[in-house]
């Protein structure tokens, strides 16, 4: 990767862009982040690219342009793209029941009261449909929320870290279908394993495993040569160490890092479309450029232009924003002024968001504090890579918005 255009040629003040580097260097110098990489593009050209700090603090190995990161929930937009590619081929309609592809989702029940030990439930008043999964309005949840008795049921079933280590993806989906929903599909928004269920639908509809579909239909066509569900052992030294924030917000080596590191080189039993990928800034940049160009990059078209436009509109019922419809659960975005499309958060009201942005900007992030966004109005993309859990530790994403938009001066 390299800077492809002088910042001034695409409307940036180069001195103002360097404020990004100075600001986030302070995070590293204060021990709040191990290291990071940031890339800013405009009109399809890289205008700013910088790294600072370490991919492994203990060994002193620096973050480099080819460093491999766990992108966690930045996997979700890729899975959503895969689903919409199959949608374009007529494999299903967005209103089709999930049970058409995963029969265990036919008779869902909704939590109404009681405890995790003795939950009270009723039959779901609405079938779960594919669009519910894409918008996180399915009623499913994540075990790590620690906000609801159903979250505890997920933990008891072995889903503390998303998918379960001892089940394949089909088994995970069947187990999730057996647990109560938080609400009737379409009634609220809750960040969840919905995108993992979409990954299973990709497998059923395409006849390929999720890793095969990603590789042959998305990664190879886009030249994303370093992205996958496992890391090649020959690339072990490129893999960033996983850090976690201590009570003071300082980055400390994750207590389960050694296990996570060892697991990185083996294809997992359950391929998580919600959070299982490793990638590089270069590869994710390729993905964001395809989205910015409305489905096409370098002559390769994954999605129709109108499909991308449709995915990046707010699909929440009644045009609500996340602040109104979300149950207060964790997400990778501040909620005010933002809706949710088919796989992305979508800015509906930049003023309500209280962070510089454009109407129609779409984005997401990962739980190790990675982030990206695409702003079609400004022809802008941003990718930020680091490895600190949880992503809520520092206001990296909002501050990155401030610093990128203040550098635009055209």
UniProtKB/TrEMBL annotation:
Species in which this protein is naturally found: Saccharopolyspora hordei
Classification via InterPro entries: Beta-lactam-related (IPR001466), Beta-lactam/transpept-like (IPR012338), Diverse_Enzym_Activities (IPR050789)
Source species, domain of life: Bacteria
Name used for this protein in its record: CubicO group peptidase (Beta-lactamase class C family)
Pfam families: Beta-lactamase
UniProt lineage: Bacteria, Bacillati, Actinomycetota, Actinomycetes, Pseudonocardiales
Every Beta-lactamase-related domain range: 20-401
